[in-house]
UniProtKB/TrEMBL annotation:
It comes from Novilysobacter erysipheiresistens. Residues 244-319 form the CusB-like beta-barrel domain. NCBIfam families: RND_mfp. Residues 129-240 form the CusB-like barrel-sandwich hybrid domain. The keyword Amino-acid biosynthesis does not apply. The keyword Glycoprotein does not apply. The chain crosses the membrane at residues 7-29. Residues 51-78 form the Heavy metal binding domain. Keywords: Membrane, Transmembrane, Transmembrane helix, Transport. This is Efflux RND transporter periplasmic adaptor subunit. SUPFAM superfamilies: HlyD-like secretion proteins.
């Protein structure tokens, strides 16, 4: 062996020795303690471990102890006696620091007042269509502009309709005849006239048939002009009554449960601030708007003075009927919604646990609890998100209760060579 080779061997031997010592320390610090703890816990038989998990990633489960692949910390065991649900203990002083406040679940009826916007429209049950059931010509228009108010029996248009004129002449001739045969034909002539669709309120003058308004209201549409031909079935006028109007209001899906046909309603219109219009829910339209999750309620409002007109906006106040009592909680105490709704319950021993609940409708700052919670149980109404989150508990609450020494994580001695002479008082290597 040459002199150079001897020098390399002499330098390499201490480096191999140091590497072996470092590897041993790392293995002892990362494998042996956690494995020994797991074996000791299993051997003791006191508490059965279901799995290990990282408090910062509680959804990930591991079948053996060790280091977390997410954070530089040891995995935490989940014991079998905790399988029924996590129970959290918090010192009273810590509760005050975190602002945790509890309320008692009470049974009662939900405040029923619902306030939503609405839009006024025509009451289509009072809409009447004036049309020609036979071929005709519009000889004269008495109402030429839309949205004019009319009275029942007021002339709208004069038309010339040969079929109607012929049928009318036949009826008049049979009525003036004295023979028994002519009198026997009178019912058939009148029936033919009805089959041709001559309105009962029409007036006949000098061969012209005058069509009149069937009710008091507004002429909302005029579809013809003077001198125009009107084939059979042509729409001439549309007349809308104004004694009542419809108010279409969008009710949130969560509050529709207590709204039924007949529910009383009050409407406020900004154009008439001194008046309160009373009405009732006529029906709930069988369709939910997919975007706003609301259901249309059709409300009938009395309008004898004709102050309400289509297109007006109104603020609607409803008083739903709530006859069934439920467990009620402040809406802020409920975490999540739907199938994932839950609350944090405080046990008699001062511990906390999350509980899945089924919620009903909400109103007045309260939410119905249909199942999962009993009357009299205490529920966290403030600070429940910290308790519900296992990561927040492990990362925040434990740090609050920890001493300054505990807050410093133990760092593995990776790459450090133990001091073989700790009493030498030598200055640390930099």
């Amino acid at each position: 062996m040459s002199r150079t080779q001897k020098v390399y061997v002499a330098l390499a031997a201490p480096m191999v020795l140091v590497a072996g010592i470092v590897l041993g320390i790392w293995w002892a610090g990362n494998s042996s303690p956690s494995t020994a703890d797991g074996q000791a816990a299993s051997a003791s038989g006191e508490r059965d471990v279901l799995y290990w998990y990282d408090p910062m990633q509680p959804d990930q489960h591991f079948d053996k102890p060790g280091k977390s692949p997410f954070m530089d910390m040891q995995l935490v065991p989940k014991y079998a006696d905790e399988a029924t649900g996590p129970r959290i203990s918090i010192a009273p002083g810590t509760r005050a620091n975190l602002g945790i406040r509890t309320v008692e679940a009470e049974r009662g009826s939900l405040a029923g007042t619902i306030s939503v916007p609405g839009t006024i429209g025509w009451d289509l049950r009072q809409e009447h269509v004036v049309s020609a059931r036979v071929d005709s010509v519009v000889d004269r228009l008495f109402v030429k502009a839309p949205y004019e108010p009319v009275r029942a029996g007021q002339p709208l248009a004069g038309i010339i309709a040969p079929n109607w004129n012929t049928a009318l002449a036949e009826v008049q001739a049979l009525q003036s005849a004295d023979s028994a045969a002519a009198q026997a034909l009178q019912p058939a002539a009148r029936e033919r006239l009805r089959a041709l669709g001559l309105p009962s309120h029409a007036q006949v003058s000098n061969g012209r048939i005058v069509l009149t308004a069937p009710v008091n209201g507004i002429v909302s549409e005029i579809a013809v002009r003077e001198g125009a031909a009107a084939p059979a079935g042509t729409l001439l006028f549309r007349v809308n009554g104004t004694d009542t109007v419809w108010l279409e209001a969008a009710i949130p899906q969560a509050g529709i449960g207590g709204v039924t046909p007949g529910t009383p309603v009050e409407a406020h219109v900004s154009a008439i601030p001194e008046r309160v219009f009373e009405g009732r829910v006529e029906s709930l339209l069988p369709q939910i708007d997919a975007g706003s999750r609301t259901q249309q309620a059709r409300i009938v409002l009395e309008n004898p003075e004709g102050l309400l007109v289509p297109g007006m906006f109104a603020q609607v106040t409803l008083d739903p009927v709530e006859s069934i009592e439920h467990v009620l909680l402040p809406s802020d105490a409920v975490i999540g919604a739907g199938a994932k709704a839950r609350v944090v319950v405080m046990e008699t021993d001062g511990q906390f646990r999350p509980v899945a609940v089924q919620t009903g409708r909400s109103g007045g700052g309260k939410t119905q609890i249909l199942s999962g919670l009993q009357e009299g149980e205490r529920v966290v109404a403030s600070g429940q998100f910290l308790i519900d989150s296992e990561a927040s508990l492990s990362g925040a609450l434990e740090r609050l209760d920890a001493t300054p020494a505990d807050e410093m994580p133990a760092m593995p001695d990776r790459g450090l060579v133990p001091d073989t002479d700790p009493g030498a008082g030598a200055e640390p290597t930099r």
